[in-house]
Design goal:
This protein is α+β, with helices and mostly antiparallel strands. Helix content is 46%, strand content 23%. The protein contains seven helices and ten strands.
Length: 274
C-alpha cells in the first residue's frame, strides 16, 4: 500500500525506491490521477505486473511475477515463426507445381485440391502467428464472404457422407482477424461433419453470432467440460486440437462461446461476437 506521496505504508521507503523503474513512477502517477492503473516493469531479467486501485487516500497495489508467462509467449512465437519459415517454402513449391500441372492437362480435380490444401495450410500458419503474437486492433470485416468460402469448401465433404449441408449467411460486420475467423469455422464444420452420420449440418451467420449445428452423435454430459482441452480425444479420434484452437480464437477476439449438446441428438456451437 502506498500514500499519495509515494511512501510505502509500514516502510521507510518510496515505491520507486523499492522498484526503481520509470514504468513504476508513471504507473504511480496514473494510479492517483485516474483512480486505478496497470503497468509492468523489468528487474534483473524478471518481469512484474502491477495492478492498483485507490481506496480512500491509499493506493493498493498487487504485484505478480509474469516472467514465466513472458518466456512461454516468447517460445510460442519462436515455434510459430520457425514453422512458418520451414513450411512456407515447400508450400510455395507445391502451389507453383500444381498450377503448372493444371496448365498441362493433369486431373484437374486432384490438382485443384492439392493447391487448395496448400493455401489452407498457409492461412493456418498466418493465423496461428497472429494468435500467438497477441496483436489487437482488428479490422472491421464482413464475415459473410469468409463464411461462404469455408462452407463451400466443405460442401463436397458433407455430400460424400450423405449429409445435407445447409447455410443461412447474413452480412455481419465485425472487428475480427479474417484468417482466424475462417480457421474457427473450419474447425467447427470439420467436427460437425466428422461426428454426424446422417441428417444435416447447418451454419447460421447473423450480425451478432455464428452458429454451427448438427444432428450427430452429441457429447455426453460428463465430457462437455473437457472437449475444449488441448489434446483431449473423444471416441471419434482426431488429434484433440480443433476445439481448443476454437476456444483460443474466441478468447483472442473477446467473443463468447456456447455449447449445447445432447447425446444421440446432436451438438450446437454458438459464437457470440458481443
Amino acid at each position: 500500500m502506498v500514500d499519495r506521496r509515494g511512501n510505502l505504508l509500514g516502510r521507510d521507503k518510496k515505491l520507486w525506491e523499492l522498484f526503481p523503474s520509470p514504468e513504476v513512477l508513471r504507473g504511480f502517477r496514473e494510479l492517483f490521477s485516474q483512480g486505478e492503473a496497470t503497468f509492468e516493469f523489468e528487474e534483473r531479467g524478471s518481469f512484474y505486473l502491477f495492478k492498483g486501485k485507490v481506496v480512500g487516500e491509499v493506493g493498493v497495489l498487487l504485484k505478480e511475477d509474469i516472467t514465466l508467462k513472458r518466456k512461454l509467449n516468447s517460445l510460442k512465437k519462436e515455434v510459430i515463426s520457425t514453422l512458418s519459415h520451414e513450411i512456407r517454402t515447400p508450400l510455395s513449391v507445391i502451389k507453383g507445381s500444381g498450377e503448372l500441372l493444371l496448365e498441362t492437362g493433369y486431373d484437374r480435380e486432384i490438382v485443384e485440391e492439392i493447391v487448395r490444401k496448400a493455401s489452407e495450410i498457409e492461412d493456418v500458419l498466418k493465423g496461428l502467428k497472429k494468435l500467438f503474437e497477441g496483436s489487437k486492433g482488428f479490422p472491421l470485416v464482413n464475415l459473410r464472404p469468409l463464411a461462404y468460402e469455408v462452407v463451400s469448401f466443405f460442401k463436397k465433404k458433407a455430400e460424400e457422407k450423405g449429409l445435407n449441408l445447409v447455410w443461412e449467411l447474413s452480412d455481419a460486420t465485425v472487428s475480427a482477424e479474417p484468417l482466424l475467423f475462417k480457421q474457427l469455422l473450419r474447425n467447427l464444420l470439420d467436427n460437425a461433419i466428422k461426428f454426424t452420420d446422417e441428417g444435416e449440418v447447418k451454419v447460421l451467420l447473423y450480425k451478432d453470432f455464428l452458429k454451427v449445428k448438427d444432428t450427430g452423435k452429441g457429447i455426453p454430459e460428463s465430457l462437455k467440460n473437457r472437449v475444449f482441452e488441448k489434446y483431449f480425444k473423444g471416441k471419434g479420434g482426431g488429434q484433440g486440437i480443433g476445439l481448443s484452437v476454437v476456444k483460443e480464437i474466441v478468447k483472442f477476439h473477446g467473443w463468447n462461446l456456447e455449447l449445447e449438446s445432447e447425446e444421440g441428438k446432436g451438438t450446437t456451437f454458438t459464437v457470440y461476437f458481443q
